[in-house]
Amino acid sequence: MSERSFTQRGVDTSPHGLILGIETSCDETAAALVDSDGRVRASIVSSQHDIHRRFGGVVPELASRSHIEQIELVVEEALRVGGGTWSGLGAIGVTQGPGLAGALLVGVCYAKSLAYALRLPLVAVNHLDGHIASAWIDSPQFPIPCVLLVVSGGHTHLYHVDRPGSYHLLGRTLDDAAGEAFDKGSQMLGLGYPGGPAIDKLARTGDPEAIAFPRSIIKKGSLDFSFSGLKTALLYDLRRLDPASLLQRQADLAASYQEAIVDVLVQKAFAAVRRCDVSALAVVGGVSANSRLRAVLEQCSAREGIRLGLPPLGYCTDNAAMIAVAGRLALTQGRQSSWELEANPRFELATQ
Ligand code: KG4
Ligand code: ZN
Question: Looking at the whole model, is its pTM more than 0.70?
């Protein structure tokens, strides 16, 4: 499609202009409808977990194929649930990256074609901008400045947000992301994929203090993270156990392993809050669904008098409501994408 061949409609900022969000960056095909005032009318997520489970992780080709099969159904379901019509749409927001190239391509091509056919404005959304927006979906008054922790399958990043959309990187993982540590740990424990929810569930029946797993602090004062040592510690522990003892100790191992991840995330997030002298902390991304992380964050925030922002569970892992909300914000700031839009698997979050 060329930019000259077609004119997009102007952005509809009336209350009737619904934004359709589309997300296909990894293993969830998602579509959502959001009002022009930011209220989520529908958020539909079709998960591919059953497809990838037997491979122990996401198989990129299978992910793309499943997105192709699901995308139209998911969009139609979002329209049905949200009470929208094709002609009632005001704009389309789509995840441009980061993510799997083939998976992103499905969403971007679909969004471009739909925007072209319906003469709608199209806006590209960075997946991380989407996760960040998720903390504000149900709490639009959540304060800025704040510290923001993004914890997902590919990211563990701490930012200082001094005004909306302005992110200063304070620290990041030097190796595995927290979600990756959950997924790899789960694989080693024989709990399968996706690892985070599996460890979260089993850990509820285990003792988090049973095994003293290492907490990687890196060096005094550093806000960077490292989870590869923890993974190795689990591996060595498992090598010492025969299959029967492993089964017996599985819940304690899961609880202690989870505790080591949660402990470091919470310690560093609050160290960042103190360093930046802010009174609010937002935590987003798939790992923010972890029940133990949420509980410890709540306890520490209450103790330290810090306002905590956690997305509702449905907006922690990948979804399109966060993409529609971030897209809406971009449109109101005058950003709009051209027909030349392409998927960008390595799309970096713009930082200061
Ligand atoms: O945000 P997300 O859905 O996708 C990415 O952008 O990466 O995050 C997925 C990650 C996976 O590593 C998954 O294991 C982890 O989030 N996750 C969890 C939980 N639910 C999802 N980790 C810990 N506890 C959970 N309940
Ligand atoms: Zn994500």
Answer: yes
